[in-house]
Amino acid sequence: MLTRKFKTSNPTALLTEMPGLGMGAKNLSADIRRHFNCTLGRDRDCRSVHYAYSALALTVRDRLMERWRNTEYAYDQADCRRTYYLSLEFLLGRALSNAMLNLGIEEPIQQALNELGLELEELADSEFDAGLGNGGLGRLAACFIDSCATLQLPVMGYGIRYEYGMFRQMIVNGYQVEEPDHWLRNGHVWEQERPELTVRVKFGGRTEFSNDVSRPGQVVWLDTDDVLAVPFDIPVPGYRNGTVNTLRLWKSAATDEFKLGEFNAGDYAESVRAKNLAENISMVLYPNDASENGKELRLRQQYFLASASLQDVLRRWLADHGEDFSEFAEKNCFQLNDTHPTIAVAELMRLLIDVHGLAWNEAWAITNRTMAYTNHTLLPEALEKWPVRLFRQMLPRLLEIIFEINARFLGEVAARWPGDIDRLARMSLIEEGHEQQVRMAYLAIVGSFSVNGVAALHSDLLKHGLFKDFHELWPERFNNKTNGITPRRWLAACNPELAGLISEAIGDKWTADLTRLAELRPFAEDAAFRERWMAIKRRNKEKLLDFKNRELGLTLVNPDLMFDVQVKRIHEYKRQLLNVLHVIHLFDRIKRGDVQDWTPRCVLFGGKAAPGYVMAKRIIKLINNVAGTINGDPEMNDRLSVLFLPNYRVTAMEVICPGTDLSEQISTAGKEASGTGNMKFMMNGALTIGTLDGANIEIREEVGAENFFLFGLTAEEVERRRGGYDPGAVIEANEDLKRVMGLLESGFFNRFEPGIFDPIIESIRSPHDPWMTAADFPGYVEAQRAAAAAFRDKDRWARMSILNTAASGKFSTDRTIAEYNREIWKLTPIPALPVK
Ligand SMILES: *Cc1c(COP(=O)(O)O)cnc(C)c1O
C-alpha cells in the first residue's frame, strides 16, 4: 500500500511550493466555477444543489490547505511540545460557514456567489452535520479544538471516523423513531485521507515470554487478529490567524493477510465475516449519553482509538528522535476526554515496554507525566467498568499491564495506610464481585498527572465524593476547568445580526477576546440600543419559526410569545419532566380561568433519547401528548403552545439559541457536571431559569442574582433529603401539583392509550425518586411566575437580556483552553508560517 517512494527522499520544491491563492471575489468565483466543472465534472444539466455546495466548499478548503501545511511546518520546525486531545466523540456540525468566518472571507464569497447567481444560504443548507457525538461532551471537544487553533496551540484531536453518526430522530405518533445517519453518503469534502499513515492495531491472541535472550522477561503478544487504522484528517481553522490545526479521525479496515489466510484455508465466507468484524469497528457511534452499556464493540472502539493514536504519535517521535525517549514526557501530553480513551494509559505502557524496550519504571514515569484525565459525570451508572473476562479475551496483554499497575498502586496505598483493607478494596482498579471488573476512572486517575472536573461545583463534588480516596492520596492532581463554548460558532456565525450590533457598539475585538463583551453593560441603559437588540431577537424568533416550519410542517406561532426553550439530551436528571409538569400547570390555570396578567408563551422541547432508555422515550411521548392536547384546545388561544422539535442537533441549536427568551437549565442539583447549552443561550441574550447545578452557578455569579431565575434544592439539600423524601406529602401540600398529578393520573393526556404514563407517575411519587421532581415543583412554578412577570416588562427584559450577553465572557472556550494550557499542557503558542 503506497510503498513506492521518490528516488530522492522528498518531492521537489517545484512540486510542493506554490504561490498563495487569491482571497478576492474574482479568484473565488473562478475557483468555484473550476471545481464545479472540472473537479466535480458537472454541467448545465446538474439539478442538485449539492454540487454547487461542494464547489464552494472545495474553494474554501483550498485556502485552508495552504495554511494547514504552514501550520504543521511551523510546529515541526519548532520541535515544540504538543498536546493530543483523545475523544471518542467530536460533535462538529457543519464546517462551511465556520471556515469562511475564521478565514475572514465571508464578504468576497458573498460577492463571488452573487456573480455566479448563487445563494449562500441554499448552498450552506445542503451540508450534512458531522454528528460524531451524542451531546455536550462531543460538542465540547469540537469547541476545544476551535479554541486551540485560535490560540495557535499545537494541539491535535484524535477520534473515530464513524460511518454512521448520531441517529436521526423522527417522531411518529408522539414516539421517537431512530433512523441511521449515513452522513458520508455524498462524500465529505472536509476530510483528507492519508493512507500512507495507516497503522495496525492488535486484538485477541495470547501472550508469552520472548525467547530472545537479549531481552529477558520480554512479553510478546501473538496470534492476534489485526485491524488497520486509516487516518482521515479534518482541518481546524483558527480565527483569522493563519493557523489550521488537525483533527485526525481513524477508520478501521481489514488487513490483507487476514483475508488471504482464511481464503487459502478454503473458507471464503468466514474470511468475509472476519473482514466485516474489522470494518465494523468504526461503523457506528454508540448513541448513549451519560450511561454505558458494556458492549464488546465499544471496548474495541476505545482500544482502536487509543492504540492507533499513540502509535501515530510514537511514529513521529521515532522519526525525529529515534529510540531516545528521555524527552518524550517534556514534549507530549494526552488529554483524555472522559474515561472512554483511558485504555491509552495501559497501551502507552505496552508500546514503551514491549515495542521500544523500556523498563517498567521508565515507562511508568513517562506515562504518568503525559496523561491527563477530564471527568464529565457524577452519575455512578455512567462510570465505565469493563469485565475482566472481556479484557482477557480481547486485550490479554493490556489486562496483564493493568494488573501490574494495580499491584504496584495498591502497594503504594498499603504503605501510606497500613492495614486499611477496606481502603484497598475501595481503591483497587479491579472491582471484586460476582464478576471482576476494571474501573476505568480509577485507571485514568492512577495513570494521570492531572484530574479535572468541568465546573467549580462538579470538581468540588469529585474531590469530596466520587474520588475522595484518591483526593486524599494525591490532592495536587485535582483541578477544575469550567467548560465553555466557542464564540465564533455560537455567536458570530449563528447570530450575525446581533454580532453586528455588538461590534457597532464596542468594536469587533470580542470575537477573539470575549471578556470585552463586558463593555456592553452601559448599553443596557440606552433605550435606542435596547430597541434594536430586541428587534434582532424578534427576527431571530421568526427565523426559528421558519426553521421549525421547515422541519415540522406549518403551525402558526406568534413571535411575540415568550419562547421558553429546553433542548438537550432527554435524561431523567435533566428533568424535562419537571418542565412538562409546569406546562400542565399552565394549561390547568388557563382552563380554570386564572389568566390575569398572563404572559403568552411557546414552550419548545427538543432532544434525543438513547434508543434503549425506556423512561426517556416515555417522557418524549408525554411531551408530545401534552403538546397535542394543548395545541388542539381552542381555549388556549395563543396563551400557550407546546412544540417538540424533532432531531435536535448542532445545526438546529444554531437557529434555536438566537431565538430563545428563556433558557431551561433545571437539572437536579449535583447531577449536571457543567452544561454548555446554558452558555449558548446566555451568550445569545436569553435569561436562565435554573437550579444551582453545574456551570449555572457560575453563570449566575457572572450575571448577578437579579438577572437569573433561581429555584430548587441545592446539591447538599438533595443529599440530605435522601432517605426521608416523601413526594406524596409534597403533592398533598401543594394544590397546583395536586391538580397536575390529578390530570396525569386521570389519563387526560392518554385517553386512547391507557396506562402508558404510569411508570412516569410512579417515578414522581416514589420516595426513591433520585431526581426529586416533586420537591422542586413549587419553587419552579414560583420562578416561572417571576420570569413571566419580568417578560411582560419589555424594558426590564431587554436590559436583562443585554446584561446576560455582556456577562457571558467567561464562558468562551478560549478562556477554558487558556486555563488547560497554563495549568496542564504548558504549550507555547506557535504562529503558522506565512502564506506566500
Ligand atoms: C450544546 C449542545 C449540547 C449540550 O447541551 P446541554 O444543555 O449542556 O446538555 C447537546 N447537543 C447539542 C447538539 C449541542 O449543541
TrEMBL record:
The modification N6-(pyridoxal phosphate)lysine is found at K680. It comes from Methylococcus capsulatus (strain ATCC 33009 / NCIMB 11132 / Bath). GO terms for molecular function: glycogen phosphorylase activity; pyridoxal phosphate binding. Its cofactor is pyridoxal 5'-phosphate. PROSITE patterns: PHOSPHORYLASE (PS00102). Its EC number is 2.4.1.1. Keywords: Allosteric enzyme, Carbohydrate metabolism, Glycosyltransferase, Pyridoxal phosphate, Transferase. Allosteric enzyme that catalyzes the rate-limiting step in glycogen catabolism, the phosphorolytic cleavage of glycogen to produce glucose-1-phosphate, and plays a central role in maintaining cellular and organismal glucose homeostasis. It is an enzyme of class 2 (transferase). This is Alpha-1,4 glucan phosphorylase. It catalyses: [(1->4)-alpha-D-glucosyl](n) + phosphate = [(1->4)-alpha-D-glucosyl](n-1) + alpha-D-glucose 1-phosphate. GO terms for cellular component: cytoplasm.
